[in-house]
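cache lookup: miss for this entity combination. No prior model stored, computing from scratch. Input as submitted by user K.M.:
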Amino acid sequence: MRRGIYPGSFDPLTLGHLDIIKRAVDLVDELVIAVLNNSSKIPMFTVEERIAMIRDVTKDIECIRVEPFNGLLVDFASQIDAKLIIRGLRGVNDFEYEMQMAQTNRNMYPELDTIFLVTNINYSYISSTLVKEIIKHDGAFQNLVPEEIVKYIK
Ligand code: ADP
């Protein structure tokens, strides 16, 4: 069985993330959405809130699991026996960091491969950071995130 991991902070999940999820499920038998519980970054939504939101958004998509993780992604991948990481690429700004991460991970776990899905052009400008900034200033974020997320945020 080919198990893939789509890791991220998802603080909160955006339409860009959802597009990657929908495309990634066609590439694997099971997709584990791994939600980073990072103690050095203070998130807007707790890991439990982010997981609940993602489960709601993806409830009709088969073969998806949503789980928290902390520490090294390679350790989590080895624990759940996954050898494929999926990441989204929005543009050249993402590329350098993503390539470094992919090479570092493969160095620590040689069986692990990372594949990149190039973002849908309609969502390439969307980031969780941007969404959080708009929420903080009471702006219109409704067309940047799935409708289930809009309900949670409200
Ligand atoms: P991280 O904190 O790991 O960067 P994010 O939650 O910001 O986590 O993003 C998780 C993954 O989703 C990354 O691979 C990122 O490049 C990708 N991603 C983020 N926003 C978009 C978008 N608008 N379109 C496609 N991929 C995206």
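stored under new cache key. The CA atoms of residues 13 and 145 lie 7 Å apart.
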